[in-house]
Amino acid sequence: MSAEPHAPKQMRLAELVDLEAFREVMQSFADLYRIGVKVFDADGAKLVDVRVGAGPFCAYLFQHAATKTACTRLVGQLKSDPLDEQGGVKLVQCFSGLRYAVLPLVYEGDALGRVIFGPFWPKDEVAPSPRLREMEPGLDFAQLAELARAVRDASDEGVRKMLGQLRLFVEVLLFSSYRAALTSQMHIESVTSSYHELSEKNRQLLEANERLKELDRVKSNFLAMVSHELRTPLTSIIGYAEMLHEGMAGELNAEQLEYVGTIMDKGENLLSMISSLLDISRIEAGKMRLVYSEISLSEVAAAATSSVLPQIAKKKLSFAQQIADDLPALTADRDKVRQIAINLLANAVKFTPDGGGVRLEIDRYFGARHSAAAAGGTGSVFERGEEDFIRIRISDTGIGIPADQQERVFDSFYQVDSSSTREYGGTGLGLAIVKSFVEGHRGEVWVESRVGEGSTFTVLLPTARG
Ligand code: ADP
Question: What CA–CA distance (Å, rounded) separates 416 from 61?
Answer without folding.
Answer: 99
